[in-house]
Write a structure and sequence with these properties.
- This protein has about 325 residues and is of the alpha+beta class.
- The protein is built from nine helices and eight strands.
- The chain has a five-stranded antiparallel beta sheet with strand order 4-3-2-1-5.
- The longest helix has about 45 residues, at about 1-45.
- The protein is elongated.
- The N and C termini lie far apart (about 145 Å).
């Protein structure tokens, strides 16, 4: 009897707690199911993608969609919990227009972040795994959301860039890249011979197993780029897969130095040539200058004092 009375007293609170628990558990279940569904759809779409570029875009959009679904599930669960505890949702929804207007004036940058992030994803400008330069920062894209982009640069520093600050996107990993190579040779060297050596070295590099799948086309030699102070600069480029241009450039420079040394082609270092006038050369030779042209030496103070003391002693 006492147990029945206690249950009747605590019955409404327990039923409320059970309903709230069920709402939260349902929201958690929806979150897990939505995450698995998005992941499965992303894997299926990536398997049918025409190339790695589309696969990266699908992965990026999938992560953003999973985040958006999680936010929606959390908002719905929050409104249902408020309704269960007696807080009416209707006035909140009715005032949403006024509140959103007030928030819009105070959070314009936040709204700009979300809209910019949406267009970045839809237009496929940034994807996870790309190397980009945005808002003065560059690095590997590790995370893209509607709010921000997370970059990690070469030394490991992480940069969080708000999407609203992004006005220009420089993507260095789209379709292909170029390994831009400038090689300097001495003025006395044969330019045609140097170009032939560069083509041979590039062909040997492409034939290696480590670079066969990274280099897309043979080397393109533009020719003489400039006549520098101590060298003739020959410009060339090699088309590579995205993000492989640095490794290809380092390997080519190492091999081209060894090939130039074997062929007797000089890689110059900065030097200067001094032209002296004949009079300057004569002045530098021992005894070459006329002693009459030398200016008279000014007596030192010590010498003057010594001579003055000497004269005084003789007068005595």
């Amino acid at each position: 009897m006492d147990w029945t009375i206690a249950w009747m007293d605590w019955g409404p609170e327990l039923r409320l707690a059970l309903r709230i628990t069920a709402i939260l558990a349902g929201a958690r279940l929806v979150h897990l199911l939505a995450g698995r569904m998005v992941k499965r759809l992303r894997l299926l779409a990536a398997a049918r993608a025409s190339g790695p570029e589309n696969a990266k875009w699908i992965e990026t959009v999938g992560r953003a969609a999973r985040y958006a679904l999680s936010v929606v599930a959390l908002l719905v669960a929050g409104m249902l919990v408020l309704n269960e505890v007696g807080v009416s949702i209707a006035p909140i929804l009715g005032a949403a227009g006024v509140v959103s207007l007030a928030i819009g004036f105070g959070a314009q940058s936040l709204i700009k972040d979300y809209f910019t992030g949406l267009f970045l994803l839809v237009e496929n400008q940034i994807r996870v795994g790309d190397v980009v330069e945005i808002a003065g920062k560059s690095g590997l894209v590790e995370e893209v959301s509607l709010r921000k982009v997370m970059l990690r640069d070469y030394d490991g520093s992480v940069h969080y860039v708000s999407n609203g600050l992004i006005t220009t996107v420089t993507n260095r990993s789209t379709a292909f890249s170029f390994a831009l190579i400038d090689v300097g040779i001495a003025y006395r060297s044969n330019i045609d011979q140097a170009m032939d050596v560069m083509r041979r070295v590039a062909g040997e590099l492409r034939a290696e197993a480590a670079f066969a799948d990274r280099i897309i086309q043979d080397i393109e030699i533009a020719g003489v780029e400039s006549l520098a102070e101590s060298a003739i600069i020959l410009r060339s480029r090699i088309r590579t897969l995205p993000l492989a241009q640095r490794d290809v450039r380092r390997a080519f420079l190492k091999r081209i130095k060894e090939a130039f040394e074997a062929e007797g082609i000089e890689i110059p270092f900065p030097n200067r040539t001094l032209h002296l006038a004949p009079s300057s050369l004569q002045a530098l030779r021992p005894g070459g200058a006329d002693s009459r042209d030398k200016p008279a030496e000014r007596p030192s103070r010590f010498g003057a004092l010594w001579r003055g003391e000497r004269a005084t002693s003789r007068a005595e």
